[in-house]
Structures are given as structure tokens and as C-alpha cells.
Amino acid sequence: MLPAMSRPDRERFLAEPRVGVLGVTDSRGGDRGPLIVPVWYSYEPGGEVVVETGRQTVKAQLLRAAGRFSLCAQDEGRPYRYVSVEGPVTAIDDPLDPALREALAHRYLDAEEARGYLAATSGQLTEDIAFRMRPQHWRSADFAAFAADFAEGGAGEETVPR
């Protein structure tokens, strides 16, 4: 069984600025798996996951068709941790609120980089929309306690034959 996080821990983890990986069913036919792409997102504990994308992108088309998506955020450093959420699209912000776009830029970039990014991509503001999702299903893992057992020379200690 995975060492799951408590509800407050997983919500705090998801609220931290991490690149998320969005997954949505690809309904275009054939033998396609789900569309899985890295995204910037926002989340406040108890709230909704918000993802921005272009109005005419494949991602937007698939999100509209599926009406739900998954998002996974992880910490690749040791000890490994992740939170995955899945749920229905609750709203589509169209047009996109400029304050949301600015908040996302400042979430992922330092102040100077965010200003430069927003200026360089200002034309996108009229093309972008945001999808909101209420997390319905959560999965999480925090291997800190598991890793501590190994660090202390516990069950994870390995004897190398000579």
C-alpha cells in the first residue's frame, strides 16, 4: 500500500507551484491513448484546479468533449512525493480574466521574468481560456517515512555478496 498523504498535506502539496501533468481522454478515434501534457495550474486548498490553454487547441477541444480531466503533480527529489486529482470540469472562463493569467505567470516565474513573459505573450490573452475542475478523486504518496527506514539502516539495508 502506498504511503498516502493526509488531506491537509495533499492539498498543501498541490497548492505549491509545481508543473502539473494534465491527462484527458482523447476522443478523436483510432487507437489513441489519453492526451497527457505538462501544464501550469493553480489550486488553493478546498478549491478548484485551474488550467489555462488556447481556446482552439486540441487540449481545449478534448477537455470540452470529455468534461473532466486528471492532473498529477510530483516532487522528483528524494523522498519522492506526488498528488493526483481527477474530476469534472465545473466551469470554462471565456474570456480569460487577465488577473488569472498574471497570477499564473507570477506563480511559476520570478517577478522580472513574469513581467517579461506577460509582455511577450500579451496577444495570447484574447486567445486563452481557463478550465476549472473540482477534485473528486485523489491519489497521493509520500515516501518520506519509507525512505527514513532505509536511511536508518532498517529493512532496506542490503548485503552485497563478496
From TrEMBL:
GO terms for molecular function: coenzyme F420 binding; oxidoreductase activity, acting on the CH-CH group of donors. It holds the Pfam family Pyridox_ox_2. It comes from the Bacteria. One of its GO terms (cellular component) is cytosol. Keywords: Oxidoreductase. PANTHER family: HEME OXYGENASE HI_0854-RELATED (PTHR35176). This is Pyridoxamine 5'-phosphate oxidase. It comes from Streptomyces paromomycinus.
